[in-house]
Amino acid sequence: MAIFVNSDTRVIVQGMTGRSGTFYTDQAARYAPCYVGGVRPGKGGTQHLDLPIFNSVTEAMSETGANASLVIVPAPYAGDAMIEAIEAGIGVVVCVTERVPQHDMSRVKKALQTSDTILIGPNSQGILTPGQCKIGVMPTRAAMPGPIGIASRSASLTSEIVAQFSKAGLGQSTTVGIGGDTLHGLNFVECLKRFRDDEDTDAVVLIGELGGRDEEDAAAYLASVDYGKPVVALIVGRYAPRGRQMGHAGTLSVLGGASANDKIASLRDAGATIAENADDVVAAVKRARTAT
Amino acid sequence: MLLSENQSKELLCQYGVAIPDGRLAHSAEQAEKLSKEIDARKYVVKAQITAGGRGLAGGIRFAATPSAVATEARALLGSTLITDQTPASGETVHSVQVEAAVDIAKNFYIAISFDPVSGQPMLLASASGGVEFEQLARMDKDAVKVHLLDDAAGSRDALTEFLKGIGIEGPEALDAIENARTAFCENDLTLVEINPFVHTKDGKWLAVDAKIALDRNASFRRPEFDSMISKPGTPTSEDEAQKYNINLVQLTGNIGVVANGAGLGLATNDMITDAGGKPANFMDIRTTARSFDIARGVEMLLSDPQVRVILLNIHGGGMTAADTVAEGVTFAYSRAGRKLPVVAHLAGHNAEWGTNILRDRNVPVETFDAMSGAINRVVAIAKTGGAR
Question: Which of chain A's residues have a Cβ under 8 Å away from the Cβ of B259?
Fold first, then answer.
């Protein structure tokens, strides 16, 4: 089963013909044969990486039956690309582009209000259902199928945790990066709901950080339901100085905002098991599983 | 990217938000001269730094006469203000804003930013504005009320009703807020904060202090941003690192940290601090960085006398494979006179290759399979003083 994407997912790439688009599409298509085409206005009818190129998302969807899109276009055009995919009614949009302006994301979020499309990102490493489908830029060598669901705000830290799980013999159902930006699509609460309904997932790991309020919302959700599966949270940035941007734009709340320790306290109160640090996540899952 | 008070108020004024009559001065003499152009019974001299909290740190002074303005300006200019929002080393005052002091009937707080959930602009407002606002808002979350600003019909009526609940009334106040919102939407701003938004004794509404944040990611369509964010003084190492696709934040410890990814960098610094060590920096090598960019980042650490040992915590993936980072490190070491010991945890794509590159090129490196192993070792080295 997994969440959002599996071996039946048919993916198109918006921006496939660019340098990053070519590099990452090639990697992802080699990993799993989910890729059915690309979109590049003005290059419709041509081929790239042995896949057909279309002029628009709508055309690509009707020709290929695509139900997911990877947006890998440069930041100035990423907002419009996401809106095109949303308006075309595609099921899942994954945007890996960094540094999309907030006012563009505001328009994208407006488009989402009247749509059923799931937006993952921007500034996300994407989504991976090991052995079935990769829509994103993450390394896959250390990933393997299994019972752990992971939702995260960061990329390389997630890859490190995935590698630790696989080394311990625990594979992953789906790993999803919700992205490091202030304004993003999919949030932790929606990930938690999907993982709860997913029979392939036995335990869920949230990888959060200071800034924003995804973790607080996740805590409020967990406190409101009998979740039924162990939830482990790793929240980083406990010693980060206030008022500075620590890499991800989402770490800086222009109006203040919660510290990592506040988030840890809310999640612990809501029943989540807290991983002490990035080397403690696998052990924390084992602790949580024996406790339930 | 935050604008100074002076720039923030200039921009708001262009959009029709009333501000007190004021001038920007770079010397005490200039402050005195400019204050004579201002029609005022009393003056206020305000240190121009971008961090908040300056009122409580003595950065706002009152003066009755132009000569007193000069005295206060002299005391502020060149001084360093440390507030809970500046870096630990504080922020140097390069200029002061001289303004007509305002007869305040009541202070309010208003701000426009994006609601993270809906992604739409929202207005925050509070009936308790002024210098202590931030502390108050932290302790009492209900002190701030939130109103979504949408384009729907009747939105002005809804806004009027919302503001009435705060105690902000009258068309002048409403216009000021709508004008601030227009400025927010037309300039790729991520924050417009007016604190205090003052109702004066003679019934006017003035933005007595303001803070605006620009979205640097929109620079490609805002050529004017460059002129607004150029700061006096020499560029910091953080600005320099940005040019090389590295997000850097200087901290006060002695362990130089090289990590790829913001989350991994934060996780690394947490683990160092838990183990009793002190990171000298936060580093996030962006996926767009090439080995030459990384070399520049490592060179910055090697040339910083505060740094005594370097920790490499890399999980290779995508375009930043571990060997790309290793190449950058060896390049920096081949050019640097100061070869600090390196403790490394390399994992992910091409990790072994990266380790071999470091060893083959004689970088003084110790490698560990687990992060905690590397972190305990680097903290132990730092505690004995590391290398000079």
Answer: 156
